[in-house]
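Hi D.,

Good news: the full-assembly prediction came through. Inputs first.
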Amino acid sequence: MPDRVSPLAGSAVQGRFGADKGAPGVKLSVRHPASIVAIIARQGKSQALKLTLDRMQGCAIQWAGADQYYAVADGLREGELYSELKSRLNVLAAVSDQSHGRVILRISGPNARNVLAKGTPVDLHPDEFPAGKSAVTQMAHVGVHLTRASEDAFELSVFRGFAENFWEWLTEQSEEFGYQVT
Amino acid sequence: MTSFRLAKGGLIDRATELSFRFDGKGFTGHPGDTLASALISNGVHLMGRSFKYHRPRGVISAGSSEPNALVELREGGRKEANTRATVVELYDGLVARSQNRWPSLDFDIGAINALASSMFVAGFYYKTFMWPKSFWEKIYEPLIRRAAGLGHASREPDPDKYEKSYAHCDLLVIGSGPTGLMAAVAAARGGARVILADEGAALGGSLLNENEEIGGVSGLTWAQGIIAELGSLPNVTLMPRTTVFGWYDGNIFGAVERVNDHVLEPSLYEPRQRYWRIIARRAVLAAGAEERPIAFGGNDVPGVMLASAMRTFANRYGAASGKSIAVFTNNDSGYRTARDMTAHGVRVEVIIDSRADAKADAGGVPVLRGRKIVNVKGGKGVAGVELDDHTHVPCDTLAMSGGWSPIVNLACHQGAKPRWDAAIAGFVPPDVGPAFTAAGSAAGKMLLSECLADGAAKGALDGKLPQVATCRDEAFAITPLWWVRESTGKAFVDYQNDVTPKDMPLAAREGYSDIELVKRYTTAGMATDQGKLGNVNAIAILAEATGKTIEQVSTTTFRPYYTPVSFGAFTGPFTGHHFQPVRKTPLHEWADEEGAVFVESGLWMRSSWFPREGEDWLAAATREVITARERVAICDVSTLGKIDVQGADAGAFLDRLYCNTFSTLAIGKARYGLMLREDGIVFDDGTTSRLAEDHYLMTTTTANAARVMSHMEFCHQALWPDLDVQYISVTEQWAQMAVAGPRSRATLQKIVDGIELDDATFPYLAAKELTVLGGIPARLFRISFSGEHAYELAVPADYGSMAARAIMQAGSEFGIAPYGVEALSIMRVEKGHVAGSELNGTTTAADLGLGKMMSAKKDYIGRMMAQREGLTDENRQCVVGILPVDKSDRLRAGSHLLKRNDPPSMANDQGYVTATAWSPALDRWVGLALLANGRRRHGEIVKIFDGLRNIHMYGEICEPMHYDRENLKLHA
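Then the structure:
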């Protein structure tokens, strides 16, 4: 099996960029290669699916709309998470492999929230949007699945085709704070 | 030059000197100055020319309402026209120019307009440019356009960055004067998330300009204490230099933050301005009140200004407006200017108070009660004033106060009208509910103690009122005086549009008596200041002229924007190639390596053709077609919409969406499908495959991918919520490539794992999941848009370019080449396959020759409406093939079709050419067309008329399929 090639392989170059005001205000990275599987509840199975997903081990479950979720994990083989969830959830949900279709960007640091506020109308105050919460939003004209990973770290999942353009926007908005790509 | 800088006082940094240029001449000022205060401190009052009469003008106000001192700020791409000198913070190296004058501000030829002022009355444009009609386009319009507007915009691109951002809060406080500070601190101490926004460079509002006393200290000291407390709280965001310009649905406020307007150039990584959308649970309007002028003769001579502006220039900027001052007022606040200026050591000659019974404290300055000014002597500066008793008062500057107007604008942005309050002679904000309340002088509370208490009450979201400090109140009493009827000189109600008190009665006499019509007819209240100073006077004068009360006349409609907002702020970062997002396919990198020329297709970048040395687009596309027809070629088709459809009712769902049937499709097979809109017109087409009993893969056209998805969402959620079906876009998950041509099978055979691609295991329309290149999951479809023996191969996107390279290598022995959408388009026209130019939102399935696909055995979207008379009329235009009779003629898409001997006219129109292609196989141009009753007209010779190029030719109508009509190659 050949390795997967990230659409940001040429863009997300490691280093320190933007304004130099001491420690970088923002840290950016690409979560690749990740396994991402979309889960949609079957007719009448919303509750049962939710209960099952609440107990799910081995992958993170992120809300993605009414009766919809993403399962996300790292370090798995091609199609592994998809096959596993397909067999485990088949009665409760339809699953679809989106590992290649979406790109997850991570943004953290003291100014992460300020950068995101330039794109999303979602209120990111920790009381309103605590760690673990997700929202389906739009930033810079691109649909974004936004998740708060921790107090000051967020994940932005976008369609692969927009990844390069979105990365460019995100880094430009981070420039005033100084950013580090890892 | 004499300095008008006061010896001490003011919030300026006297230790630092800033150099700037105005109209080419060098001056100096200090940090903390505005351009206006710096010019005044240099003795410069003449700052602009008026719009219509080109009268010399100076500053009227000291803030954002300034109508006269409009300048072109900066140069080149950074030039900003119509910028108010009163809000431009001075910086070193500032360059500004005056406007609306030629050749110079001092000597302006346009001033000749003033001599003909009897001609330029209200409605002048409408009366003068009516006839002769033929003059309009060539003479009047260019003339008006040249005269219109004030400053000139730069034609160079703006080099600076602009940003957009969102903010959320429990309480937005608009204005940081005494009211706003109390509101903010009351909410903040209770733990609420507070945003305090103010248009000024520094927070403090009127406390920066006025001598007040709060809690035993100066108003400024008190304000600094509160601001420091607010700044230390994590739940408070202070936003100076931020104008809240509009109030919108959902209690969302628009604001613009001038991040770097106060410096010569923004630093590399910072924007010039930031456009905010502030989503507020509650908001308090603490914008204060605006002082009004009075309309009297010569009230626009440079050196005549609002009384509050004069003391602001002195108190805040240490700039004396003159050396010999007179004050004209109809209320008590004018006396503050006399007292403040006296305290600054400036000579105040007299207070002229229109009220005979005025009782305010003049601080020792003589007062002439019951007197009015009828004219100001002087042209480019004040030489004295003439009173209605014919006495003359010498002075070099005049402060005027016509009372105060609460700044109600934002509260009226959703349509409510303000209410007239006779006690303060001003409009007060309407009650628009608890989410947005006005407080302090914005709500008509004219005493400082009332402002502090009201701010505290409106800001205390948790009901806990903070302690309100005691303060010294200035008396407020007013007897309205809108204009001096006895004026001997020209008086102005609206400075920016040169509207005089005579214009309102004139408009009313001519039938335009409604205030909205008066605004349009006289232009009162238009342009950059939107009547902030003059509107109330204009309303009062109109009321007088029409015998109505001010309440009955009411105001014009308040709309955003409170003050002008630059286009840059609205555009934000979305300029140039960021205007819309760019979407790249997973094969982009591979196509780029192969030398593709990309074309924008929606947001996608698609490979259009792959030129080799010396080839133009047609030569390249022609070679690519020949390669596909004779050998093997590969094309990126990843942009086609792909929707994964699952569930027990997936087949039933598709049967209702498509006009043909999918529940009967065998597993492992693909079928072409046609979707209609509810109105019976064709919506979209594409191939849909069945991967398992309850699992389909739908494809849509590139253009309609998102629309089909929303259509499915609507149909499922609104029409058939009982169906057990789940669907999701998988467009981006898969890199998909068409591999077409006689050697496509041999090429692909080399990369698939363990499967024989013969007709038995992989027949026409087979659709199967398999693996390629040693384990990469893939989907292979034997489908063809080109008419050749062809496949489409899909692999997960991250493997896309790698797989395409592998196919190129596998096919190299057969002479494989990549092809783009141009070659794709040529081959589809040759084969008569319909695409976007035929599926154009006007055609039915029958029009496209696909009528037989409409199932008679089931119901589906569009079935009923497709049976309408007009949609089944046999004379409808339907798809035909067309060939030029002269083989050397080039067909042009868009050409219209006529009967052979008819001249071109709308009435004779028979249809038009939808698509054309140079067919390498047939060695001629071929086309598709929509032609009335076309299917029965095969063989007819028609006239082809290209009105754009004025080309006439003849063409023969034929069936749409031009090439390989037996489909021998498809099944080869």
